[in-house]
Design a protein that fits this description.
Blueprint (H helix, E strand, L loop, with lengths): L11 H8 L1 H4 L4 E3 L5 E5 L7 E4 H10 L6 E5 H22 L5 E6 L6 H11 L5 E4 L2 H10 L6 E4 L5 H12 L3 E6 L2 H14 L4 E5 L24 H13 L6 E5 L5 E2 L2 H20 L6 E3 L3 E2 L18 H18 L6 E4 L3 H4 L3 E11 L16 H12 L5 H20 L5 H21 L13 H4 L2 E5 L3 H4 L1 H5 L6 E3 L9 E6 L8 E2 L2 E3 L2 E3 L2 E3 L9 E4 L6 H4 L10 E7 L5 E7 L4 H7 L4 H17 L5 H15 L8
Helix pairs in contact: 4-5, 4-11, 6-7, 7-8, 10-11, 13-14, 13-15, 14-15, 21-22
Amino acid sequence: MAKNDLLGRWSINDSANLYGVKDWGAGYFDLSPKGEVVVRAKFPGSSPVDVSLIDIISGIRERGMGMPVLLRIENLLDSQISQLNESFRHAIKAFKYKGTYQGVFPIKVNQQAQVIEEVARFGERFNHGLEAGSKAELVIALSMINSTKSLIVCNGFKDEEFIDLGLYAVSMGYKCFFVIETPAELKIVLERSKALGVRPLIGIRLKLSSRSSGHWQDSGGDSSIFGLTTNQMVDVIDTLKAENMLDCLQLLHYHLGSQIPNIRDIRSAVRETARYYADLVREGAAMGYIDLGGGLAVDYDGSQTNFVHSKNYSLAEYCADVIEVIMEILDEHEVCHPTIITESGRATVAYSSILLFNVLDTNLFQAGPIPEELPPESPELLENLWLVRETLNLKNVQECYNDAIYYREEIREQFKVGNITLRQRALSDNIFIDIIHKIAESLDKLKRVPRELVGLQDVLFDIYYGNFSVFQSLPDAWAIDQIFPLMPIHRLLEEPNRRAILADITCDSDGKIDKFADLHDVRRTIPVHSLKDEEEYFIGVFLVGAYQETLGDLHNLLGDTNVVSIRINENGSFDFVREIEGDSIWDVLSYVEYEPKVLVAKFRDKAEAAVKAGTISVAQRREIVSAFEASIRGYTYYEN
């Protein structure tokens, strides 16, 4: 690892480069001169303000809340909503676009009440609306949106009750659109609108031929599960004409995917959609809105490429390309410029949430004590392994590697049949690990690394056990190999001296993170520091605000973490806006249909039976039952 300091010492710049914080942090995260990760809040007309995550953790601890914690920073959500709307406004002015822009936030991306309240509050000055994909989400939207100028876009399957709610909203003056996703929906919309006497606002979701790359590429293309074919669109137009309701058709919608890394895919989809839009106008539909769906990507690895976890465009480029393509197509057909809608969810909320946890323990891949010489009467295989260690040099690296592997396996086989003792087996493991580390250290000195040894350093990793659950707090990391920026949030003036993967506290082999963000690639380990006695080691997982808070499951009955929301002030202070205690054991047991009161009563009966049997005293029973009741009401995660 290169050192920037003139004296060869590890510097802040070295840590910043190693973890890529300036690449993926989007200006919101940086490192302080003290070697701590800071959150950067920006204020109009004044300098940005930095707040240390370690200082925030201290405030959390003073308020009696433990790790892990999901930290939400209001400023970052406010900033992302502002940037999205201002960027479109700037592009509209620059290109002299005659329409406007209105964003909607898809509630499914983060359904937590606090987040939706903030989206509605920060977005109100831009008439930023909400997208609902279910009845429950529509209830949220109708409750949270205050301005009748904001849009509510209804996607997903819609039954009569769903449609009635939306029609009531229209009757109250709200712009609530029903996006027709399947042919059967139009009939229900028309029937309910006649029954309630309310003319609906209708949109059509197209099934584009365009596709994007990445995890969510199946959202577009002919194989997408939602959207109408061209024939079905014609049927919708004919039906509305027959019902004298073609003026109700005002919106065209598509969704290409949740994270579109390549701007060329975005341009292609917008171009195709604009062609459809022009023809709908030609058919006599009122139109007025073109909804480009989600897809505005987040650069999780900071590489600024079309890699699946990145993006090769800026927000300004995204807005400019969208407007340029729409104008090019519609001006050719002399069609009025519509209001542009995007359903940007991931890019809106990802930056504002950080998962913070402490490391509980480590399993270090390093050799234990090795004696100066082998014990008397050591078996021949152990002597041969010892000789490999003694004769290892740069000229015979590959030969020693092959020999070490061979003798280790032979020793293990002999142990199984009883010819090698436990202590001899333990010594052989230490010798082998020492040999492998020496070989790995020598690779940088070789002119040509043997093919069998390429990547050897990546498999010599430690395991750091973090106080969190992948399944609860980072489900995408487990389910679809989503990469999140992850790094220690302090001690960054020190050079990391270990390479590790992270294991959570579930008893599951999948409960780990072993893929980490790296420029143009994915690395298998993360550099970390050795733990110090009596000093906690904290790690942050960044950009987790999208989907992770609502997709988690109760694996091992580890529930929601503590949640803390802060607001950074212009003077450098920060306020704790809200604190939400994580799930207790009582809570998670009730989620899976246990009755905690019944469990407590059953345990009391068992303790009383133990008293009657003379196993424990009455005083002991009181102590044991109290401990049981305290535990069932406690946090599901590891507590000091």
